[in-house]
Structures are given as structure tokens and as C-alpha cells.
Amino acid sequence: PGDPALDDPGAEYGYRDEIAAVLLSEQDLRAKVRELAVAVAADHDVDTPPLLVCVLKGAVMFLTDFVRAMPIPTELEFMAVTSYGSATTSSGVVRILKDLDRDITGRRIIIVEDIIDSGLTLSWLLKNLASRNPAAIDVVALLRKPEAVKVDVDVRYVGFDLPNEFVVGYGLDYAERYRDLPYVGLLGEHMYR
Ligand code: 5GP
Ligand code: MG
Ligand code: MG
């Protein structure tokens, strides 16, 4: 008589037999997001609110939890980019799908990212935003994979280092599915092979 949620963690969200395991539970995520929010806020000034740039769509769950845990005011912007590649890898050739709505000259920017894998997308984004003359740019990423250490991107705040496996949930998708899961899980291999 096992707990069905443990036997099949996707089942209660309508993804029957699709999620192999929970890697980071809702509790794990909540605690880490609070920790990151406090750490980032400590490096910023209440009087000059940082401008958070959320990279759509994967970072949206992280962003909304993160800003609500921040003990200082923040302002929000959204950017959507796409990186050509297969469904599970990126190429570094990036295209802007939705740009920022305002000028960021002189602002302190915090890029809010879901996951850094090869680091190619982020290094492109850092260059792109730096060319707009902000006062500073920092990066907060919820997740990072081992490959990311190979590229020279300065990520000041990282939530969790992950093994080199494809994860979904808490904003992260596979073919636009699974973003709605409240945890980060491992997609069953039979789902993409
Ligand atoms: P990078 O350019 O660093 O290789 O990849 C960045 C983007 O690829 C992430 O923002 C994310 O959208 C996607 N990505 C990388 N690894 C994973 C993963 O394990 N799961 C999912 N769902 N997306 C990933
Ligand atoms: Mg991303
Ligand atoms: Mg994706």
C-alpha cells in the first residue's frame, strides 16, 4: 500500500507515468528561494530598487516566489528569448521574442534565470543587456548544471547545482509541458527517447 504520490509523482497533477522522480520538493524550493532573496537583498539598497529581468518562460515561477520573499522593493521586466537547438539542448544562437519595455540605462539589473546548462543563452543575454549601459548586472539562477562551469559567465547567486539530467517543473518545460508542476522533477526517459 505505497503512497501514490511517491510511486508516481506526476499522477496527482495529471501527468500519469511521466515523471520519474522528484528532485527538489516544494519545501526545498521554498527554503532556497527565501535564502536567495535575503542574500540578494543584502547586496542592494532599499532606496535604489533593482530592476529584475525575468527570462520567460522558465523563470516565471521562480521570479514570483523570489520577489515576494525579497525584503526590499524591486521592479520587474520580462524578456523572452529563444535559443535554436533540439528540445533538450541549446545552440547559443539566440533570438529575442519579447524585449524589455523600457530603457535600463543606469539601472542595477538582476537577471532572473531558471537554469544554466551550457551557459550559452545567458552569456548572450549578458552581452546584450550590457550594451544598453546599465549601472550593473548580476545574475540569480535557481538551478545550474555541471556543463555551466565551462563557460565564462559570472553568476553571482545560484540555488542548486544539479546532476547532468533533464529536469522539468516549477516553470521548466519539455515541449511546453510540465511547467505547472510545483516541484522540480526528472522526466521519465521514455518521454523523450
Ligand atoms: P543553456 O543556453 O544554458 O544551455 O540553456 C538555457 C536554457 O535551456 C534554459 O533557460 C532552459 O530553458 C533550457 N534548459 C537547459 N537545461 C534544461 C533542463 O534540464 N530542463 C529544461 N526543462 N530546460 C532546460
Ligand atoms: Mg531560462
Ligand atoms: Mg524550454
From TrEMBL:
The protein's annotated pathway: Purine metabolism; IMP biosynthesis via salvage pathway; IMP from hypoxanthine: step 1/1; Purine metabolism; GMP biosynthesis via salvage pathway; GMP from guanine: step 1/1
EC number(s) reported in the record: 2.4.2.8
Protein name: Hypoxanthine phosphoribosyltransferase
The keyword Chaperone belongs to this UniProt entry's keyword annotation: no
One Pfam family it belongs to: Pribosyltran
Name of the encoding gene: hpt
CC per GO annotation: cytosol
Catalysed transformations (reactions): GMP + diphosphate = guanine + 5-phospho-alpha-D-ribose 1-diphosphate; IMP + diphosphate = hypoxanthine + 5-phospho-alpha-D-ribose 1-diphosphate
